[in-house]
Amino acid sequence: MDKINSQEALLAAYAACKGSLALRLLDKHDINSPKKEILCCGGTGCHASNSKDLMDLLRKAIKEHGLENDVKVIQTGCFGFCAQGPIVKVMPDNVFYVQVTPEDAAEIVEKHIVGKQLVERLLFVEPMLKERIHDYAKMSFYAKQERIALRNCGLLDPENISEYIANEGYQALAKCLFEMKPADVVQEVLNSGICGRGGAGFPTGMKWKIAAGVQADEKYIVCNADEGDPGAFMDRSIMEGDPNSIIEAMAIGAYAIGAQHGLVYIRAEYPLAVSRLQIAIDEARACGLLGKNIMGSDFCFDIEIKLGAGAFVCGEETALIHSMEGLRGEPTTKPPFPANIGGGYWGCSTNVNNVETYASIPVIIRKGAAWYSKIGNWKPELDEKGNFKRTISGNAGTKVFALAGQINNVGLVEVPMGTTLREIIYEIGGGISGGHEFKAVQTGGPSGGCITKENLDTPIDYGNLGKIGSMMGSGGMIVLSDKDCMPAMAKFYLGFTKDESCGKCTPCRIGTRRMLEMLEKICDGNGDEAMLEDLERLARTIADTALCGLGQTAPNPILSTLRYFKDEYIAHVRDKKCPAGTCRKLFKLTITDACIGCTKCKRNCPVGAITGDIKQKHVIDQTKCIKCGACIDGCPKKAIVKD
Hints:
single chain, about 650 residues, Glutaredoxin, Rossmann fold, Ubiquitin-like (UB roll), 4 domains, five-stranded mixed β-sheet, globular
C-alpha cells in the first residue's frame, strides 16, 4: 500500500469514528442529549458473567423502542473495576452502572434512555461513604488513578481499528517515521525514564539502545504477553481492550532498533486476547500500518502471534525465546543477552518487553519524554545537552496493579510511581473488607514479599519496595487481613513456584520442594524451632544460587514473612497454634452452650458431622469434620468456635 492510499485509509478510519468517539470523550452529565452510547465491558471476567447476553438484550430493547439511529451499544475492553462487573457506562451522560445482569437491560433502556431517569439500584455504592455515585470520576477507585497504559480500556471497541485511529492512534508511529530518526526515538524513550514493567525494572530506552547498537541484518522485537504471575492479568486486559496500542508500540520499537519482524508470545488460554490481537493485526495490515512500506515509508515490519503454554518461567526472556523456537522453556546463563547476536530468537539480536511497557510507548512519543518523566517521583539530572544523566531509575510514569485480596474495591488500578500503599489500599481500594484489620500486603506475586502496616506510607517504586523486602514484579498486590495466616500464605506461593520450576537448576528444582515440605510440616503443627533456622538458611542459599529470576525470587515470601511475622511461625512450631485460625490441623470446631438447637449448622454441614435434636445443643463429630467453616457462617448465635 503506497503512502497516498495509506493516508486515505487512515483518514477514512478517523472520519468513520470521530463523531462517535466525541460522545465518549465528553466528561459532563448531559442526560438530555438525543444521542447515546451504551458502553459494555467485554473483558474476560464480564464475558464470564454474561455481558454478551446483556449487550444483545440492550440492542433488542433499543430496537423495540425505535431508537437504533440514536443509541448504540458498544463493546469495550475491561474498565478495571472487576469486582463490580459487568459494567455499563452511558455516554455522554457519564453514568456508571455496576453488577448489571441481562435482566437489567430493558430497565436501563426504558428508564434511563427513554425516561431520562437514573436506575438508582445499579449505581455504585461508595464503601466508605455508603452513598450511591453515578459519575465514575468521583468514585474513590478511579479518582486518584492516572490511566496511561490503560487509557483506552473501557473507552474503545477493541475490534475496530477506526476507533483507535480516531483517538490519536498511530500518530506516534507516523511521528517516528516522518519526523524522527531511529536514534531520536531511542533517546526519547530513554529520557522518559520508563523502565520495564515486567518486574525487573531495567530502563526500556537502555534496552533499545543496546539492541540498536548491534549491527545485524536480521533483528526481532518481541512482546512478552505470557507472564504467569497471577497479578499479570492486567497484560491480558490491555490486549483485550487496546490491542492496537501494542501493535503501534512494537512498530515504534522495531523502527528504533532496526527490526523487521515482531512476535507476540501469548498464552493459549487467553483466547479472547488472542482473537482480538489477531483482529487488530489483520486490520493494521489492511490499513497499511503493518507490512511493506508502512505509511508509504521505507520501513517494513510485520507481526505474528506465537502461542505459549502458560509457563511462569517463560516470563524470563531467554526461556520465552526458547519456547518460541519450539524448545523447552528453560532460561540460559547470560551473556549472551537476547540483544546480542547468538542470544536472541534463532540466534538473532532480539528485544523483549512486556505488554504494559509497550502500552505506554505511543503516549510517550506523542506527548514527549519531558511530560512522562514528570509523572511519578523521578528527579533526574540533565547533562549539558538536556539528556538525563541517570539511566536507571524506575520511578517515572505510572504502574498498573492488580488489587485483590481482603479489599473492598478489587480490580486494576494505575497510579503514578510514588503513590503510597496507604493511598492505594484505603482510598482507591476502599479499605479492608468484612470489617477486618489490615495485616500485610503482598506485592510482586509469588516472587514478592510482604509489607506491613509500619510501611504503609512507603512511596511505591522499584527502589523503595526492594528496601523493605518486597518487589514490584509485574504488579500483583494482594491485601491480607487478620484472617490470613502468613506461614500458610508463604506455603501457597511456594507451591506455585515449585510447580512452575523448569527443573534446569538444582537449587530451584530441589530447593523449592524442600522448602515447601518444611512449610507443610510447620502448618500441620509438625515443625520445630530448628526447622525455622533450616528454612531460612535454605531460602537464602537458593536466592544466591538459582539460575534465573524464578528460582532467585522464589524464597521471597518465606524470607519476608520470617522477617515481619516470626511470631506466627513460633506459634505454629512451639504452641502448635495458628493465630489466624486457618491451618486446619491446628484447630477444631466446637459448639458452645450458646447453641439454641436451630439445626441450621446440621443442615449446612456437607459431610454430616453435626448431630443433635431441635432446641438441643448440637455436637460435632471430630472424626468426620473437614473444618470447612460452613457451620460457622450459618450459625445465628455465633455458637461455633475454633479451639
